Amino acid sequence: MTDAAARTAAFFDLDKTIIAKSSTLAFSRSFYRGGLISRKSVLRSSYAQFVYLFGGAGHARMERMRRYLTDLSVGWSVQTVKDIVAETLHQIIDPMVYDEAVGLIEQHRAEGRAVVIVSTSGSEVVEPIGVMLGADRVIATVMVQDEGRYTGAIEFYAYAENKAAAIRELAEREGYHLQTSYAYSDSATDIPMLETVGHPHAVNPDKVLRRVAVERGWTVLDFNKPVKLRRRVPFQPPRTVLAAVVVSAGAAAVGAVALAVRRSRQLAAA
């Protein structure tokens, strides 16, 4: 393995890029059975999943989903959430992993690149999925906790420009060469993330991202073969899977989100 290969990475968005659905909403029935949410909330989550799959994930829709999920989680036991995810992870996530994404992950690992999952979903959901997929690192949203329960506040929101900032910080810390690295996402909200690397890829892109990808000559990929992960050759998971969180997630995060909102509006109006 060359020194250059050892210091490159492949950054993957999770929802609709590696898996065919929203990872967070996919656990709604498990949370219901675990006593965290009501049947009404399950139905609402199912509807949100449908809208997310067929309507895309623009800024306004992501903001509504974020507010709904953070309000819903107030007072939840962090350990209960972790236990439910651990118990039902393979049952829920395993059947909806894209075969094409698994192949790319295997290819990048074989070529010596670090594999990093970058997701707006919460770390309690994303980190176990990262282990299952054999990722080296995870960047995910981090919720504020108080005495083992969620407060409804967000410590770090892994969304839009914040994803790009976290990738740059991780690259500086780990020594990744971003210009020789790769990134994959389905959403226009991840354009800042795709712009951080030399090899951006639009996967199952929404209309805005597809247009931007074509204009800029980015590779466009269409994944359409969900597969049960256990049918594939199992990964040898790395020794550690760590959540990369921007240390200065206060004012910097607020400014980054504001920038992302402006970007999103400019792209939509173009």
Map the helices and strands.
Blueprint: H1 3-6, E1 9-12, H2 28-33, H3 39-55, H4 59-73, H5 78-93, E2 97-98, H6 99-110, E3 114-122, H7 123-133, E4 137-146, E5 149-156, H8 161-174, E6 182-185, H9 191-195, E7 199-203, H10 207-216, E8 219-221, E9 226-227, E10 242-243, H11 251-269
Structure, explained:
With 270 residues, the protein is α/β, with parallel strands linked by helices. The protein has one domain: Rossmann fold. It is built from eleven helices and ten strands. The strands form two sheets. Strands 1, 3, 4, 5, 6, 7, 8 and 10 form an eight-stranded mixed beta sheet that branches. Helix 5 crosses helix 7. The radius of gyration is 18 Å and the shape is globular. The N terminus and C terminus are likely disordered.
List keywords for this structure.
270 residues, alpha/beta, Rossmann fold, eight-stranded mixed sheet, 11 helices, 48% helix, disordered N terminus, disordered C terminus
What is this structure, in a nutshell?
The chain is of the alpha/beta class and 270 residues long. It is 48% helix and 18% strand.
In this structure, how is the largest beta sheet organized?
8 strands, mixed
CATH homologous superfamily? HAD superfamily/HAD-like
Q: What's the CATH topology label?
A: Rossmann fold
Number of contiguous helices: 11
SSE class: alpha/beta
